[in-house]
Amino acid sequence: MGTSSIFLCLLFLGGALGLTTSPAPRRLRCYTCSFAKPCYPVPTECQDDEVCGISVGTSEQSEVIERKGCLPRAQCPLQGYVTYWLRSYALRHHCCEQDLCNSAITPQRPPDALLITLLLLSASFTWGGHLLH
Fold it and tell me: One of this protein's Pfam families, by short name (predicted)?
């Protein structure tokens, strides 16, 4: 028996014994933490039909809560409501599909009136100074 015949025989036996099968696909890993503040995210392995997500809830009083974790893929474009500590929150989901991709901080709300006022005052002093020269 030649070298190539021995190699082919070993390759066939290895395949028959399952030695050359590819490993099972790895599941997605996501950060997980509850609505509690502060959030200390812990890496968690998701189920096959889940993706990583950040769920952001906003109350009528503009209080924002956030939860991170695995979400069913079908939930990602949906919005809903959740009750947390007897307060109702409008809930929206931000989803991603890479390992630990949900580490981002909650998208911030638009700047408030104080910040806009400070920016306008700063701009007026800058432009006003140039107009006086």
Answer: Activin_recp
